[in-house]
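question for whoever is on the cluster today: can someone run the full assembly for these? three chains, 1281 residues total. i dont have access anymore since they changed the login thing
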Amino acid sequence: MTVTSNRSAPTDAPLGNPAQKRAGNLLKTRELGIVLALAILVAYTAIDNPRFLSGQSIRDNLLNTAILAVMATGQAVVVITRNIDLSVGSVLGLSAFTVATMMSNNQDLPMIVAILAGLAVGAVAGLLNGVLVRYGKVPALVVTLGTLYIYRGITYSWAGGSQVNADELPRHFLTFANDNLLGIPWLVLIALIVVGAGSLMMRNYRVGRELYAMGSSPAAAELAGIKVARNLLGAFVLSGALAGLAGVLYAARFGTVDAAAGNGYELNVVAAVVVGGVAVFGGSGTVWGAALGALLLTVIGSALAVLDINQFWQQAIVGALIILAICADRLVAVRIGRSLRKRDAHV
Amino acid sequence: MSDTRPAWRSRLTGWDTIIAVLTVLVLIIASFSVENFGTSRNFTFMVLDLLPIILIALPMTMIIVTGEIDLSVASTLGLTSSMMGWLWNQGLSIETIIPLCVVIGAICGVVNGFLITGLGLPSLAVTIGTLALYRGLAFVVLGDGAVADFPWNYTGWVTGTIGDGAVPNVLILIVALAVIFGIVQHATPFGRSLYAIGANAQAAHFSGIRVARTKFWLYVVSGAVAGLVGVLWTLRYSSARADNGAGLELAVVAAVLLGGVSIFGGKGSLPGVLAGVVLLTALQNALRLEDVSGQALNIVTGSLLVLSVLLPNITTAVRGNWHRRKLRQAAAR
Amino acid sequence: MAEANARPENRPAQNSQIKNDPTTDHSPGPATNETTQDKAAPPTREKAAQDSAAPDKQAAQEQQDNVAQEKAAPPAPDETTKPASTRPTQATTGTAKRDNKNHEPARLEVRNVSKSFGAVAAVQGVSFPLHPGEAHALVGENGAGKSTIVKMLAGVHRPDTGTLRVDGSDVDFSGPADAKAAGIAVIYQEPTLFPDLSVAENIAMGNQPLTRLRQIDRKQMHANAERLFRRLGVPLDPTRPARGLSIADQQLVEIAKALSAEARVLIMDEPTAALSAVEVERLFAVVRSLRDEGAAIMFISHRFEEITALCQRVTIMRDGRHVATEMVADLSVDDMIRRMVGRDLSALFPKQEVEPGEVVLEVEGLSREGVFRDISFSVRAGEIVALAGLVGAGRSEVMQAVFGVDPYDSGTVKVHGRRLKRNEPRAAMAAGMALVPEDRRQQGLVMDLSIERNVTLPRARKLARLGLLFGGTEREAAETWTRRLQTKLGRLSDAVGTLSGGNQQKVVLAKWLATGPKLLIVDEPTRGIDVGTKAEVHRLMSSLAADGLAVVMVSSELPEVLGMADRIIVLREGRVTAELTRGEATEESVMYAAMGQEVAV
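^ ran it for u. tokens below:
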């Protein structure tokens, strides 16, 4: 009695579908694009000033990238689940001040304790974010915008105007940032481990693929019986913990810590992630892409200095890059959509 | 459930009413318990503190009602403030600079609006991008310096009061704009369309509402108002700086959500938002008088932001549970 | 509450059952027998209720007496008030009953479950079993509560009252994961894939093959997917992303998912809606083999030929209530429809004869790449023109382009000879066009807004005085039209989402009729609304046409098309394949044109 559909759907199409493949490759080349942009930038700057390629300069760039890359790893995981964590800068500040205070009061504590403390502070902060997002059903944007100020406010009301100076901190803590293992600074090594482990988790482990699934289609993830609550809390705890770790690295690298440490970092972290090819709507992008994004942003900053361009351009460039990145994502999506529509056309 | 409750009762238990009552309570308690809170001098200060948040909140309310967001407002404010200082240094007259700055703000809004409605990009990501971009440009224009020598009659008007009484001059501006925005939002076809867009953009489109165009203009207005506030901010502190108003977007969004506007769009009223702004400012003012540091005050702002979305969610959940339990009991009987 | 509600509501059903009995296949003997039993012997009934609740007994006895009574109570009213229809079944299909007693319990049993959302009761006191090795159809009109049942079985919703049992023991699903763990796989009407992930990952999600380091074994995963696709006979590339798959392919991936999970209960919510005949056959072959391997299947479809081809048992629902559960073999299609709808289908289409007036709408050569091509037709005042065709033929898309909510690439749309600006609904509205869209919830109404705001939304500008709107004028306008359409509502300030489907549709109609249109486009005007309202809508359309309104109706229901339209334009794959007058149109001629065979006109 009902008119039924007998539309002959093209079942053979998926196999021979060059448009689809091309679009897929375009997405894959996102990381390649960043590498290319980096190469051009470095080449141009180095021609202008060869010192840009000196060991010290490279080292500085890597050290500066390390902290950002660690945070970008956590942020990438959160953004892949179609959420956002704007509180990371404040978590860094809270963790840095906590650890610095702890180390200045207990000069003999080993470095590992400092790192664990930083991770713990961050994890708790991240847990609160996750609980509010999942169980309070408050959008991540609102939650983390709120906790961005709450965590910063806590640091301020604790620190007041005071700061922990380098001379109050134990030597082993301060030298940690510059010590090497096999010629690689600890800071960089830690960042590499974090980025590597994050990439591995997201690519090769069930939980990683579930996080992608959650961002790709939240409704389908619930229906598929994925433990959405656990995974979401996990993502926020990870992002918080890594921001906490970044706080320890920050304190070790800069030595002087006040309540404003890491103020505004969230912007750079989000920029690194978005520029690195993680789609703001979740479901796609990679952790190592985000790390590359962090590297690109850092190199841009130091290149500006070397090229003698007004330092204040840095932030404007960050903003422009964010917009450029989401425009590029959009362009790819539109192109895929168009090619699909053509494919489905029977007319 | 809500559909069986009489209208007056659902209105009384509505979020904006709760906020209004809370606001009045805070004002009363603070005037009795906080020293200097109730003085006319403090009133003037409070209105001046209120000014930027309340003005930017007016278009922000509309934007959030349509289900979008504009996080770039504070950076737009900073950019116009920078431009104002730079133009003043170039020797332009203040009478030229002020409208020019409002136009600069509007242009910032045009960029946002184009990216969001023209290219169809998500407003959250776009305005986080322009938040960085506009603030960055503000620093490019003025560096970390300041321009301070604005004409006294203008700076004096912003900080001054009517007939040297307690009522600040800017209150006229606030009231005038609030009335205009209130009428537009609540008593015009345009205002009606905002709610339809926020609750169901597709149905709005099917009803002949120009969804993209409406949103575009909201961003332009938001930018223009942020530009105007940039001017007022500069004049109030008699200082054009690139970092003026940094972080103000949080206070504005917090106030709007506190006022009962749903972050998902489609719900909220301007009177509620006005109450939200007053509540937020009064609380901060009272705490500051109690010698709580400015940065620590952000704990209050941040908490209110989260709570304003969390509490209604909790009450719905509790109500739902209660309803379900009642059903179960009825079925068991 | 529930009980009090249930009784009066069920009475008409009982009456209709008695009326229907002679037409059914059962001999009148057992039926009358059963009816008298119903009246005379409550103890027997009680016993029967307890009998069916046997596995419950132990649990019940452990509890206090009154609690036990409470527990046993819910099924009892259900049995007593349930239309007599179930009784003859049990009498005539004794085999089924024996099956229950001798063999294992039902794999999955729905026992007297109810679920409401807010004030709307979606499902009330529904019970039926799913047996292993049996395909069970669930039928009912749109809005009858089928999808709610599916979601309860999937663990998405929790029943407010009643229980679900798997293999004879009560289960309480706290989420989809629990249902999955219990061996229940659900294929939803709209596929639930992850567009960014590969097809193989979509299938394996949750139980991906692992290497020794607990990493995902991609090679194995792809091999598994390939094996499943081979079994299903589809040439899909396991490594491609799910984004961009056709609906049919997505559906097949969903089935592969269920296969890989080795589901013991497979629930399919209209899986065939977008499939071609060949694809349906392939799907059925797979489902049959699953069934014969001992899986319990629940199948929802609007196509009765599919139900008779695949299913052994059928449960019929109407307005959220259980009407009957019977063997498919014992029922004719007509029986099923009658019980679904609750009354005979005749006299639904009161079309008045009208002499058509001047041409109102002229569409010429309208094309949109990949959607429709070279569409031309015209509509006169007083005429009802139907756009018929299969789902996906492009009917709604054509009318949305005509109204301006969708773009088109070339062609013209003229109203009263004046060409309309494309992609501009306001121009269409100004020219006197109104569109009652296909999807009421997404396109027709703003569910969170009040009834009055919804009604006045398209003409807020006209109601404004000096650019300002006052509550009074809006309310007045809304009141006029909702009353004229006899909309049942509480207050005009209530959210429109609180109304029933039929009344929501009336609000959409009120919204557009209030604009005083010359041309009314209605897209699936009676989808998902109850029969009474359906007839009202048809009568309304007829009288509007009689008053000189030009009406274009898009409909998938052939009887509606044949009953209402003066002229029928048939679309197939984006093109007009036939234009039939009322006299020429028959079920066959329309279907032929819709399926691709040209009809000699």
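summary bc i know u wont read the tokens: Confidence is low (pLDDT under 50) at residues 1-102, 597-601 of chain C. The first strand of chain C starts at residue 108 and ends at 117.
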